[in-house]
Design brief:
Helix content is 41%, strand content 15%. The chain is built from 8 helices and 7 strands. Bound molecules: adenosine monophosphate.
Length: 214
């Protein structure tokens, strides 16, 4: 299957082809190290090159802005999903291909999950973590079956990943659920790994389709 042939966004990517759309969660700040913005720039350029649509929070600030600008500069497609509340606060990116306005932060997360075939968390703050963990939890619950990845830029997520190991050792997180999270340090490798994602949660191997979130 070539990129763009997929009929719906509700697929579990198992054949090694790249997803047609990726939702990226990332900081509304650029962070303290230049590597963070560089990684957002590289990921954005790659999405454009592979014709992978970016779905994101619709903001013009921080890594969100860097990422969206990089996709647009590369000639790619960008869909923002933003609550009316943030849009009127004039933080919305005005140059993107499509902006979807929703009523609440909850509706936004749900819409982003529906629109994308895979998810990536770049470095970010609590907003990014909230989005990452909710999306990963929905995978764990079988609400969707799409790959969830973390781009661990400059070791930013090292301690979080250690803590997740601890959660698993202490039996609050099943090993197969932990193994579902795709972690890479380089953007192209992460996209490739998302394309080879297999749902390792027991009994859910390669199950396609997604029920709508509650
Ligand atoms: P944070 O990681 O706390 O900076 O929050 C970033 C995440 O929350 C992004 O992935 C967005 O989806 C959302 N978000 C936070 N602030 C904004 C904003 N000003 N405009 C759009 N989305 C935002």
């Amino acid at each position: 299957m070539s990129i763009g042939d997929r009929e719906t966004a509700n697929v579990n990517v198992v054949d090694g082809s790249l997803p047609a759309s990726v939702c990226v969660y990332c900081g509304s700040s650029t962070g303290s190290l230049p590597q963070y913005a560089e990684a957002a720039q590289v990921l954005g350029a790659l999405l454009a090159r592979h014709r992978i649509r970016l779905v994101f929070g619709g903001g013009s600030v921080g890594l969100m802005g860097v990422l969206a600008d990089a996709v647009l500069e590369g000639g790619g497609q960008v869909t923002g999903v933003i609550p009316h509340q943030l849009r009127t606060a004039e933080l919305a990116h005005e140059g993107i291909s499509e902006m979807i306005a929703v009523d609440s932060m909850h509706a936004r997360k749900q819409r982003m999950v529906e629109l994308a075939e895979a998810f990536i968390a770049l470095p970010g703050g609590i907003g990014t973590l909230d989005e990452l963990f909710e999306t990963w939890t929905w995978l764990q619950l079988g609400i969707h079956h799409k790959p969830v990845g973390v781009l661990n830029v400059a070791g930013y997520y090292d301690q979080l990943l250690l803590f997740l190991e601890r959660m698993s050792v202490h039996k609050f997180l099943a090993r197969d659920h932990l193994d579902c999270l795709v972690v890479e340090t380089e953007a192209q490798r992460l996209l490739t790994s998302l394309g080879h994602f297999r749902n390792t949660i027991a009994g859910r191997e390669a199950k396609a389709g997604a029920a709508p979130p509650p």
